[in-house]
Design goal:
Blueprint: H1 7-20, E1 24-28, E2 37-40, H2 42-48, H3 52-55, H4 72-84, E3 88-95, E4 101-112, E5 118-127
Antiparallel strand pairs: 1-2, 1-5, 3-4, 4-5
Pfam family, one: PAS_9
Protein name: Potassium voltage-gated channel subfamily H member 7
GO molecular function, one term: voltage-gated potassium channel activity
């Protein structure tokens, strides 16, 4: 039987795998009560408009993505998942740096080592907006000009 992988190698391996799949994700450490962000994927930076430096060391509540229509009960569910070490998924309205609203599935994934100890958390974001288009700051969906009746085939 091969020797157990070190936690840092497991983390590096998972980050590489998620990056290669072009996922929108953050990695958080396990410091309680609220783990801190230690990595932001390239796709997360494109998706949110925040740079890696701007999100680093924020906690897993990702308050910088909250806005007027963010349901705090959903954010509390994420916190409870962290406390219990349970995987969960919530749908929430989040906001890009420019203030545009994005409807997302946020999936909390606790990552365990071979001893079943949680070594990190992944927050994976799935954009639920039609065609990946963000909403404007007032909550209206940005319209695709090709969807207008003039461009529809008869």
């Amino acid at each position: 039987m091969p020797p157990p992988m070190k936690d840092s190698k497991i983390s590096e391996s998972i980050i590489r795998k998620f990056e290669s799949q072009n996922r929108i994700f953050l990695v958080c450490n396990t410091i309680r009560p609220l783990p801190r962000i230690i990595y932001a994927s390239e796709k997360f930076q494109e998706f949110s408009g925040f740079t890696r430096a701007e999100v680093m060391r924020h906690n897993c509540r990702v308050a910088l993505l909250h806005g007027p229509r963010t349901d705090q009960h959903k954010i509390n569910e994420i916190e409870a998942g962290v406390q219990s070490g349970q995987e969960l998924q919530v749908s929430a309205s989040l906001y890009k740096k420019d203030g545009s609203e994005i409807m997302c599935n946020v999936i909390l994934i606790p990552v365990r080592n071979e001893l079943a100890q949680i070594i990190m958390f992944i927050l994976n974001f799935e954009n639920l907006n039609p065609d990946g288009v963000a909403a404007t700051p007032n909550g209206q969906m940005k319209k695709n000009p090709l969807d207008s009746p003039r461009h529809m085939s008869r």
